[in-house]
## 1
Amino acid sequence: MFDPDEILRVLHRHGVEFVLIGGMAAALHGSDVVTFDLDLAPRSEQDNLRRLALALRDLDASIRIEGEPDGIDLDSHADLLERAQVLNLATRAGNLDVVRRPAGSSGFEDLRRDAMTITVGGVPILVASLADVIRSKEAANREKDRAVLPALKRLQMRLAGEREA
């Protein structure tokens, strides 16, 4: 089950500061690329990581590992979140990837600069700019990212043309 609205509501309820990145951010900009997880870059301050740890507990998060259908228990606390650069998680509302420094970025503060606020399921969230999503996918250079880059660049050009018109 993938319920991104529920994940976002729980994060919002706990006051977690983050920028939504990846495929869902691209979708909110108008991309038709389908994704079945949320990716976020959290603010790295200790208080925010504590709130994120509480939200992850609320979501019954476990570490997603291939070959382990139920994942591995996550002892969610701020110290772990401070040390981990990437956490691939399964939650009661679907998959969630927490990425402290996405490829091509230095993290939350860098992404926040050009992010826009979009309301999703009644929750205002910061969404990475399409340019930052593209920059991250180019830097990651994974096959799945290379596959969607042409469509994202066409969308970026179309949106730029609409703004000029």
Note: The longest strand covers residues 37-42.
## 2
Amino acid sequence: MSSYIEELLAHQEWADAEHWRAFEAHGGALNDKAIRERTFHIHLVQHAFLWMTGPQTTPFALKKIEDFPAMAELKEYGREGNAELLGNLKSFSLERLEATITIPWFQPPLTISRRHALMQAAMHSHYHRGQNATRLRELGGVPPMTDFIVWLRDGRPAARW
């Protein structure tokens, strides 16, 4: 891995896939409103950061939860977003990572480096995965152990979607 941001995004992809596998193993989780809405939010925000750190040649495609009538479609949206985030990062020079971008939903708009924006994407996803893990346990499921240190211990495994 060339940078800690690359490690964070690779961990994010692995952790997201582990959560999806845990949801699928506990049928009730896929039908739970809180898990569905929060998982949609996680992947929407990942796509927003993908767009913000990219070339922005087109307007951001703001999705709604209704755009994903089946959980399999939401899972694919998440898988694609994670893969694109990590793929884009691998092509960024250090100069591009440190260049600033504007986060438009802050008022006033916030200007930060791409590196900080990508770190925020990973941290934000981690926060909401924790909420989903708690909810999965409440539903009688077993949340996966997705701590960063576990990912390191296990040899930085690739996501198994």
Note: The longest strand covers residues 100-103.
